[in-house]
Amino acid sequence: MDNRQYLQMFFDESSEYLQLLNENVLLLEGDPENEEVINAVFRAAHSVKGMSATMGFTKLTDLTHKVENILSKVRNKELHINEEIINLLFAGLDHIKQLIEDIKNNGEEVSDVRDYLNQLDDFLNRDQNSGQASVREVTAQEYDFTSYLSLSEEEQQEIAQKIKEQDAIYNIEVVLDESCLLKNVRGYMILKKAQELGYLAKSYPTLKEIEDEDFGLSIYFILVSSMFTEDMEEILKDIVDVKEVILEPSELTIFPAVKEEEAREDKQKSPKSLANIQVAPTVRVDINKLDLLMNMVGELLINKTRLEGLKISSEIYQDIIQQLDRVTMELHHIVMQIRMVPIGGIFNRFPRMVRDLSKELTKEIELVVEGADTELDRSIIDELGDPLMHLIRNAIDHGIEHPAEREKKGKSSKGTILLNAYQKGSEIIIEVEDDGAGIDPDFITRKALKKGLVTTEEVENMDDKEKLYLIFHPGFSTSEEVTDLSGRGVGMDVVKRVVESLDGQVFIESEQDLGTRFIISLPLTLAITQALMVKIDQEIFAIPLGAISETLMINPNDIRQVRGQDVIVLRDTTIPIVEGSCKLNLNVEYGKYTEREEISVVIITSGERQVGLIVDELLNQQEIVIKSLGNYLVNTKNISGATIVGDGDVALILDVRNIA
Amino acid sequence: MSKKVLIVDDAAFMRMMIKNILLDGGFEIAGEAENGRQAIEIFKKIRPDLVTMDITMPELDGIDAVREIMEIDREAKIIICSAMGQEAMVIDAIQAGAKDFVVKPFKPDRVLAAIKKIFSN
Amino acid sequence: MEAVLEMEKDYQPGSKKQIVIFQLGTEEYAVDITHSREIIKPTKITKVPNTPDYVRGVINLRGQIVPVIDLRKRFNITVGKADKKKERIITIESRDTLVGLVVDSVNEVFWLNLTELEPAPEIEGGIKQEFIQGVGKKDDRLLILIDMERLLFADREAESEIM
Questions:
Q1: Which chain B residues have any C-beta within 8 angstroms of a chain A C-beta?
Q2: Among A622, B83, C31, C35, which is 20 to 30 Å from A314 by CA?
Q3: In this structure, is residue A352 part of a structural domain?
Q4: DSSP category for residue A557
Q5: What domain count does chain A have?
Q6: DSSP per-residue letters across A509-533
Q7: What's domain C17-149's superfamily in CATH?
Q8: pTM for this entry
Q9: A270 domain-assigned
């Protein structure tokens, strides 16, 4: 159990680091000399290495170690960033990602990374042979110290305060055995032991951080001590799991502090180290706990509604209800806020993808990201990654033309893909827009006909827009030449399915040679939604408002018949009507509605389809808390969940996508 | 004379395992306890040369048991038996006075090596 | 290692099992008490369309939606008539799912000696043998112990496999 938790943390954190690495390497490509970025990349790679070693993932450790080697050379200015290094780094990140995926799926590192490791070795050797390299061996030790343990002026003064006549300063590296378990604890014991030997001036990791720090196999520290080196070495080496102790006198010469006042003055002058940038304090919360909290808020909401229904005419009562209403709404709002995460989290992976793909296809593409801070419910965000990736891939692959072709059309040779997110009312809109070739409706229909997805007759009745939407048909793929880009993974039908499973919708706008825009609209949150309550055969059902375009009262005379199907004509559009009780297989006689004077119809929209649902009675419109029917009744036809209405009764939610 | 060991673990299975490792290593098993509370009682009675201490146990956990035992005998030699992922707790136990730790799953030679080091100091 | 430990804990030779005994028709049935969460009086059950006839519907159990299964219908028991006043819902938790079982009445809670549990005999009609974990005895009464996991998920899995 503990181990699994540990692994989960490893997955969470390593993917965060990977994201960080991808972003920063991309930055580095545009700004090769930026030391801050180089350091960030180095630190992240180092952390991943440490985590992997702790978990005992040898391939990952080995690979990240070599990547770190390259980065340390870059940091040391022995190497300069060029395209080859960037490509090597990106390839490395991909391998790391793959290995982590392996562990997730199979529990072990399956992928073969030897080729890549050889490539890295070749690269490093090549570099080593070109001059500078010969000194590396000697400076390696020193380098490690300067990188981990350079002393700030403040710290030097601290040593000056502590150091005595007979003391010497030592740089010590304690290397742990690879088989060492709970390295953090072992490291803690080593540093504790070091404190017994003298004054521990600085260490990497520090005693405080060692519990959480992902260091590799080495612990570095600077020790001020009067002991004999041999004795110190022996004591440290005697600790379990210590493989090697490298101990050497520091080149630092610090004399005992002369005057305290002077030192203090200096201390104030010394600039604050920029190394420790504080991150805003946050907590990680199990998403299940948030779901639970959301449930409780839902409960409260239901009971508030019940209270309101009492309609007691008392001033105090009115006052309480108002207060309760305010508190409930605020609480609801806050819980929703907590569940919200910026969509930037998934947007961030696309720049790298666009870069790689456009290179591969020799296209010039700029990705513009807007609204990355737009927030969406966490559960929705998690699902969106793949659909968006597919849309962007499509834009790169089929949308944006080659530079020459673009120039011929009078467009700039560089294409633009705009990824935009914003809130519109209670919906979140995400757009993927390109200024490429656009989608040719006739091309789409030809494809669809060839694949037997539609008949010629059907096509004749379609307008251009309807033709475009054929690309969402399962089994449709526009890829003429099979590149490994769009061909891989999901199709457009999956994009649509995922978005719809999130209660959202996808739209296409496209114009020849001007470009294409995919618009995804999603509800802000899945847990609570506005719904229309209707009555069908004495039972109350909820229909999410997002799927309703309008409600009507019709007269039996308005009903027409097309091919045996009852339809109504609404503003020149023919809409089939179906009986709710029939869709729900209720045990009543069907077709009775024609005998009624007035028939209540709810027009339901799903994508481009519209259906009129006949119900017995239209009730009120209200906020409902969506609850699952649970594992046992999952996949119940035409029912997507349940909610609890005012009096504590259960009302089922109609699955409008299936009904429409 | 062989050293006397008190084995503390709530799982009989684990106690059995440690017992076998220690017997093979030439130690004498002086007692077994299945929680921290029991461990302290038995410790007072038999004054073992070494205690192997599990961390997560009912009644009284290993960390508190280490604290109390160290108060009874400042020279007590306690080795923590921990699982992966218990870093923080092991560090607490070490701070409380435990001499070393071993990690499950146990490898006999590692356990014995750690114990020998405790006695050699 | 973890798995071994688990087994160690579960295995207690000669141990007893606490069961809830309930009535269905003329026979007494039982479920392992570790599966059951609580026994409630029937509340308003909302019918769920497009489900098998033995699914009576769902209830609101302190805000949680819980499906309710009519065990009489599930086992095709037609003998005797249930007294609505004595009817109870036993909520059962299995595989993280909470399900309610409608039974004619709940009789008692009892410690069953596992060594006395016998394999299911062929029972004519009614409950399928695969749902029976075994048959136990209390005095001279026969108790049919139901395999909850099988009952709730066996046929569902078969369905999804076909799909």
A1: 82-88, 90-91, 94, 100-101, 103, 110, 113-114, 117, 120-121
A2: A622
A3: yes
A4: G
A5: 5
A6: EEETTTEEEEEEEEES-SSEEEEEE
A7: CheA-289, Domain 4 (2.40.50.180)
A8: 0.46
A9: no
